[in-house]
Amino acid sequence: MTGPVRRPGPRPLPRPTPRPAPTPRPAPPRPTRAGPPEPPTGRPAPADGPGLALDTEKLLAARLHAVKVRPYLADALFALHVVEDRSVPTMAVDAHWRCYVSPAFVARMPLEDLAGVWVHEVSHLLRDHHGRGERYTREHEEHAPGARSATGVPRAAGWARLRRNIAADFEINDDIYGDGLPRPAGVVLPSLLGLPEGLLMEEYLRTASMSGLTAELAWLDCGSGADGQERPWELGPEGAHGLSRQQRDAVRFRVARGIRGRPGTAPEGWRRWADEAFHPPQPWRQLLGAAVRSAAGAPGAGENHSYRRPSRRSAGVPSVLLPSLRRTPPRVCVVIDTSGSVSDAELGGALLEVAAISRAVSGRRDLVSVISCDAAAGVAVPLCRAESIELVGGGGTDLRSGFARALRSRPRPDVIVALTDGQTPWPSAPPPCRTVVGLFPRPPGPTDEEGPAHVPGAPPPWARVVPIG
């Protein structure tokens, strides 16, 4: 007996084998700038990749160490706001007191060296290298057109930027290290170019080309706070956590007050900076020129009656011809102190001021005369060229003879300008013309009235006094 025949059912379709998910391509590495030389510890510099986090604890501990060894900079150090940025070569600051930090740089630097970098960067801001760099660029540098570098900055601009950064480092690196802050490897000092220490950034820029250093220090970049040129990675004036101008000035004032309160704890450069922060230097060249122009343009200076054009008041007196009051360029007599207490450099500066005075009186050099005076006055020499004037002297000082000689000149001057160090007796009565006194700077001297360095007294109140330098 046969059973029922079972027909085979449909075969199940084979399951499709799942394809493996495509492996994502690694993101291209972010271009970074070349960093400074490796530290002397010999440890390899860690890669500044996305996995390296900023060691904030080490960074802030280094700032505390900087505050401990430089307590007069505490207000400025704590005013800096930290911004992590991997495109920064080392550490940098901008004009708004933000501190940009590279995590790789923090990882490879010893804590004591990192504290020195804190002091270095805040020194740029306290000494206003940002504003001074901008002023120097406007007055002395021109960004010539040409090819651009890899960062999009014109090559001429990048070269000038690096020079200003190096000069700013020369100004601050000569006195910020030592006493708890070791000098890091590769720090730039004025001795690299055979330059003296203690100069300002502008003086280093004027006296050295730095062409031999710029190639090997291309990695050096302390930000716009060091030279006045903004960087692509900076947040700018509208960014977060920036200090206003009033806040920045308040920080500088507190630091200067702390240095003046304990003068023995700060180096000489910082003490000089604190004195200038309380009493900023005046633009004496502008002040002296303004004083001369004001005296030359005052009523009565250079005025005389003339019949070339009748006075408008003649209409009221038809039978009388009245002269009009005409103004002519005033005559200026410059009395230069050539005594032994005035240096050759100050005499050279006095000749430069004579040329500037001639421009202040409409460029009429024939209206400017020069008198050399020490204990006795010389002859009034008319100004042809300031470089050709021979200054005679070297003895004692008595400008009273110089004033008397100027008033005996014919025609009599309308303005007398005396350039002196102030160590002279003054006329007892004011001269019958406008008087401007330019004072060369002198440190406080002894109080012995019989001594050769005794200062007889301040200029009289009838003279317009302008401190020079």
Description of the structure:
It is a single chain. The protein is α/β, with parallel strands linked by helices and 469 residues long. It has 14 helices and eleven strands. The protein has a six-stranded mixed β-sheet, sandwiched between helices. A hairpin with a 7-residue loop joins strand 7 and strand 8. Helix 10 crosses helix 11. The model is unreliable at 27-47, 143-155 and 445-449 (pLDDT under 50).
How do the helices and strands line up, and which of them pair or pack?
Layout: H1 56-69, H2 74-79, E1 81-84, E2 91-93, E3 98-101, H3 103-108, H4 111-126, H5 129-140, H6 155-173, H7 201-207, H8 211-214, H9 224-227, H10 245-261, H11 268-278, H12 284-296, E4 303-310, E5 323-327, E6 332-337, H13 344-360, E7 368-373, E8 381-382, H14 399-407, E9 415-420, E10 434-439, E11 464-467
Parallel strand pairs: 1-3, 6-7, 6-9, 9-10, 10-11
Antiparallel strand pairs: 2-3, 4-5, 7-8
Helix pairs in contact: 1-4, 6-7, 10-11, 12-13
How helical, in percent, are the residues?
25-40%
Q: Which sequence of strands runs across the widest sheet? A: 8-7-6-9-10-11
* Percent of residues in β-strands: 5-15%
Order of helices and strands: HHEEEHHHHHHHHHHEEEHEEHEEE
Mean pLDDT: 76
Low-confidence stretches: 27-47, 143-155, 445-449
Approximate shape: elongated
Based on helices, strands and strand pairing, what is the structural class?
Answer: alpha/beta
Termini separation comes to 134 Å
Gyration radius, rounded: 35 Å
**Number of helical stretches of at least 4 residues:** 14
**Biggest beta sheet attributes:** 6 strands, mixed
Total beta-strand segments: 11
